Amino acid sequence: MDGADDMDGAREPAVTAHDGARPSTRVVSIVGPTASGKTGLGIAIARRLAERGERAEIVNADAYQMYRGMDVGTAKASADERAAVPHHLLDVIEPDDAMSVARFQRMARDCIADLQARGIRPILVGGSGLYARAAIDDITFPGTDPAVRARLEERAEREGPGVLFAELERLDPEAAARMDPRNPRRTVRALEVIEVTGRPYSASLPRYRYVIPSVQIGLDLPRAELDRRIDLRTRTMFDDGFVDEVRRLRPHLGATASRALGYQQVIDHLDGLADLDETRLLVAQRTKRLARKQMGWFGRDPRIHWLQALNPRLVDLAMGIIDVADGGGYDAVDMHADEYVRHRLGDLE
Which residues bind ATP (predicted)? Predict the structure, then answer.
């Protein structure tokens, strides 16, 4: 598997001693499905770096954790975790504000540049694959036209998403081949970009190419263990006051914030459409489905160095990967990432 470590650690990098003089310190991006332990690994790496005299701080890459007050339902880093290592881009916008990946990209890159200018290594943690990549990859986001989008959405409702997808196949077959025909929102966006820019949507599709020197470490788990963690996290969320959080935030939730997984399900419960046990079960099921999608998304990026989250040497292995990356050891592979066969995750059974 080119560009990716075997998940059982067969391609473990040598762990080198810190010599105090690095050619380049990379942004460390920690990715993987929800509940895989990304925050914990980020904190452990920051502490290990501090032991050898290097400052590191965490940059949040989860769009919903950027909202103030959305704490329990997004599994936001606790006060103790934030005290252990400074976190950035948490609690920076109100729930009725809109967050887009383009806006996040600007904020994340500004934050990364500020940290690096002060001699601090950024550790990017969490979030969807697109958000994590937007911070460090060669990705541009074309502008929007609300009138064009509204017209396309009305057509999708009236004519059906299949008609619009067929139109996309005709106008931009490359983009259509890389998209899910069952996702009308993406089809509408692609057609909007084509109409607004006069260029194929595929010309704006992200490439696997860093614009900020980085190294990505992925956490993978056997599906049974991941499901167990998701069930536990869901129970803990409800025990910790998730319903009260949604009740308090509901009058202030904007269109973007309300899409956070679990919030609409709890709103339905508050409206009497489902009892609490049904709601907990549904949130856990939706979270497991999201985790499967995340594994597929991240698995397409051959630059990610995958580690088994249950490996007792996890932090040592992660530090070894960082050391090799800082020395340029992966650059020759990473620059050809678009050419490689994609890696499939989740086959640890």
Answer: 32-39
Asked: is 146-204 a CATH 1.10.20.140 domain? The reply is: yes
Angle ∠(17,20,26) on CA atoms, nearest 5: 85
What's the pLDDT at 24?
Answer: 61
Least confident of 73-77, 124-128, 168-172, 270-274: 124-128
Tokens 């936001």 appear where?
A: 76
Q: Where are the beta strands (DSSP E) in the chain?
A: 27-31, 56-60, 87-88, 121-125, 214-220, 305-308
Q: Quick check: 253 and 70 in contact, CB under 8 A? A: no
Instruction: Kindly list the domain boundaries of the chain, sorted by start residue.
Output: 1-138+212-349, 146-204
Q: In what order do the strands lie in the sheet with 214-220?
A: 87-88, 56-60, 121-125, 27-31, 214-220, 305-308
What count of residues does the chain have?
349
* Residue 306 and residue 7 in contact, taking contact as beta carbons nearer than 8 Å: yes
Count other C-beta atoms under 10 Å from residue 344's C-beta. 11
Q: 38 a known binding residue?
A: yes
CB 112 within 8 A of CB 28: no
Q: Is the pLDDT of residue 201 over 60?
A: yes
The candidate with the shortest Cα–Cα distance to 199, out of 145, 140, 148, 142, is: 142
CA distance 274 to 153: 30
Architecture field, domain 1-138+212-349: 3-Layer(aba) Sandwich (3.40)
Residue 257 annotated as lining a ligand binding site: no
| Residue 36 annotated in ligand binding | yes
The reply, when asked if residue 39 is annotated as ligand binding, is yes
Flag whether the pTM goes above 0.90: no
Q: Is 236 annotated as a binding residue?
A: no
β pairing state of 87-88 and 305-308: unpaired
Q: What is the pLDDT of residues 65-97, one digit of tens each?
A: 999 999 999 999 999 999 999 999 999 999 999
- Segment 240-276, tens digit of pLDDT: 999 999 999 999 999 899 999 999 999 999 999 999 9
DSSP letter for 143, please.
-
